[in-house]
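In this supplementary section we document a worked example of the pipeline. Step one takes a protein sequence of length 154 as its only input; no multiple sequence alignment statistics are reported here. Step two produces a three-dimensional model, which step three serialises into structure tokens for compact storage. The input and output of this example are shown verbatim.
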Amino acid sequence: MFLIPGTALVGIQWWLFVWAPVNQQTKELALGYFLLPLTLALTGWLFYGEKLSTAQRLAVALAALGVAVELWQQGSLPWVALVVAGLYPVYFMVRRKVQASVVTIMLFEQSLFLPFALYFLLQSSEFTLLLQNTPLRYCGSCYHYSALSQSAPC
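The serialised model returned by step three reads:
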């Protein structure tokens, strides 16, 4: 029941991870990843009653100071940073409710994304050209494809 919403949340994050640098939003994306440990610590404290040791509180305070300086220099809190710092804690909360191994969850998520990924890759003329000009024996690890061709260079 929680696998689909969790998959949607991580899909948004993965899309943003690819979209932001291509659209000159790398700095904003990085700010979101700097904020992420703070939002995760806050989520643990608010929703799970986790307590921080003195050293951990000091680390959170120093991280908050560093992020505050970056926010002051940037002049705003961009939506890209808010999505990264805000949705990952929700994703981890949803994922925590799923009674399955990490490998099973990742396999499920990536299996759902595979058709979309293939569709977008096949829409790319560069990727299509790469597929046409690359023999199978050169794709991926030589170790995995050694059974396909004994002449694969390793």
